[in-house]
Amino acid sequence: MQNPLSPLKKAATAGLVLSALAALLTWPAQAQTLPQIEQMEATQKAAATTLADRMAVPSKLQCLKVFGDQTFCDCVQKDLPAPLTFAEYQVILTKSKSENQYGKMTKELQAAYDKVAPLRERCVAQAPKK
Asked: Structure pTM?
């Protein structure tokens, strides 16, 4: 059985988590390289204290890895319907309703699903043109 964390270790761990979160929230709007995103991900995972925390990689970092656009990812993360993850967002946009078994979903999940395509269009329109 593991010993519980000492108060000092708890405070240090909380500080690391808060530092990683603060760094993520104050990230400049410029494009980040994949190695920079991976470093941020590694820092956040190292600061996590539980398996659940380590597995819960923020969707913003996943989005930045895929799209590399801060403005777009902020928009998606801000308005992504609550029951959906970023991975599910990608699946919804890249597969048909029948492939995603839309008809077997609950009404709540269907409502969230139906918000994804309009969200994508809105976020694309808001992203800076290059």
From this structure: 0.58
